[in-house]
Amino acid sequence: MTMHQPMPAAAPQTDRPAPSDKALIPFVSVENMMRLVHRIGLETMLRDLAEAIEHDFRRWESFEKRERIPAHSAEGVIELMPTTDGEVYGFKYVNGHPINSRSGLQTVTAFGLLADMHTGYPVLLSEMTILTALRTAAMSALAARHLAPEGSKVMAVIGNGAQCEFQCLAFRALLGIEEVRLWDIDPAATDKAVRNLRNRDLRVIPCASAEEAILGAQIVTTVTADKKFATILSDNMVGPGIHINAVGGDSPGKTELAREILLRSDIFVEYPPQTRIEGEIQQLPPDHPVTELWEVIAGRKPGRRSRDAITLFDSVGFAIEDFSALVYVRARAMETGLYDRLDMIADPDDPRDLFGMLMRARP
Amino acid sequence: MTMHQPMPAAAPQTDRPAPSDKALIPFVSVENMMRLVHRIGLETMLRDLAEAIEHDFRRWESFEKRERIPAHSAEGVIELMPTTDGEVYGFKYVNGHPINSRSGLQTVTAFGLLADMHTGYPVLLSEMTILTALRTAAMSALAARHLAPEGSKVMAVIGNGAQCEFQCLAFRALLGIEEVRLWDIDPAATDKAVRNLRNRDLRVIPCASAEEAILGAQIVTTVTADKKFATILSDNMVGPGIHINAVGGDSPGKTELAREILLRSDIFVEYPPQTRIEGEIQQLPPDHPVTELWEVIAGRKPGRRSRDAITLFDSVGFAIEDFSALVYVRARAMETGLYDRLDMIADPDDPRDLFGMLMRARP
Asked: ipTM value of the model?
């Protein structure tokens, strides 16, 4: 059970029978998500999630797609990210409030839902703060498997916040990265990441600058959180044969790369209408050519074209990735029993008799 | 507690400390929503909800508004309905699957969420199947208070499904309706409504046809569920001085009224861009004049102009109504303690150390 505190006031019992199966929605709490990760194993789960996403990217055309639906405030954004493959419906609620960490709150929190398209009934509610961290890292590594130079062994990670360690381990698990070079504007963040990555079979090098971090790296991951135009990588820092995994620039007015880098790169994106609003390419004209990553994954378009090319995965996160992750978690939760059941859907015996059900519950 | 069944498998305990307050989201289950309705009293709650909606309709311009976001299937639709007033964010998940009742499922199920716009953290998760039934009825009665002929005492209700009794009681509570005349294509639905409305200080007249139901009625409520163009009311059935409360026509291809009735009516809607897609007025040209109900409520536009006018509230349900209802329920749930707390948001001590929190939870 995930209820850690008693209900503040006792409530009278009614003689309403226990809700039926249809009324009880499987719920994966934070506690159960953490148990699930440890049951499966973190790196296995990262590989599984990449495989689940790859499977769905191959059938990209079966999904209904749209930009996510934002609500902006001065401090951040709340977004809904729905999609469906016609059988299953999924959406994620996610916020991005960079200022939160100053008051001890997460920058990004999330939860998600799956439902049956044929009945509209929810079939899973799940925490997604942890799951989003995992799927984002799995997505990055999956893209890099198609775009990074062959035999990449060294990755720089600029920005050592909540997503950093997940990125490092996903790239280790999926690409065989051996060395990660970390830099953050706040040395305490780097220290935290170094500590967390001990005994993970990775050489972890804390660096004193972004310039030092990218030395010898075939892959550069940028994953900073400030909600503003920033230049984490300037033009002269990026040489030929680099893969850039740009994770942090993911909402209007929030970018990480110098425009000149974009002009020298082959750019790969998830869903162009969303990325043109939110990604690094918001700095470019709306007709600047980009390749949709699913086409590379499905074998329809080339990924990396030459050893010297600069490839850029302009990642903003797309609804289908969350869908894949939720479908995966649902299956594993059912297998392991690592879920609770929420009394979330009213379920009268006679579906037209909602009123009667309510009245029969009178204490 | 709302967990009616044990967790299917035992899970190992970890030494993770109990989540903090920020991580535990207040959750109003179906059980607690029913307790809340009985604690407050059904008619009081209908009046309170109408007042809450009226309050928010008066400040209509402070809200971000958009059409709801649908995902259609052959059987029905799943929709997300977000809005915010800049301080609080709310959304509802709702489905409409008319075919569901044949397999013992609800046509409409729903749940909703409130969050803090400044942090993005959820502050309430609530069942909304029952709450939607209540707020829809409260909205109908609120509109009728501004539009129906003065001194209306008799209402016809065409369609006696899950929403019927809520409509009857809301119109009794808010307008003083004394007689309801019920008709449904399925006599069993009418029987159920008659049974449920016993001892409610209402004259309840089951009728053999729609024509009989509207005899002597000043208000005609249509609330059928079929997902297709239908003609519940034909032109010759509607005389002068009637208020039509059209609740059932609420998605593309789903209407209840003959087009000729619309052409003779003063039409009032919630949010025109959404109603033109979903409401009765989808039968009319996109520039057919309509009045936004909030302008009537705020005193900026007249409602009923004459004793003989036909007024039509072309109701489809709008996000602000759910927002109002959720804000109301949140306050009442906090007062009464009728809620649980869900472990839905990961909350590491150091917000950048999500990974460390996950690792420390290793069994």
From this structure: 0.91
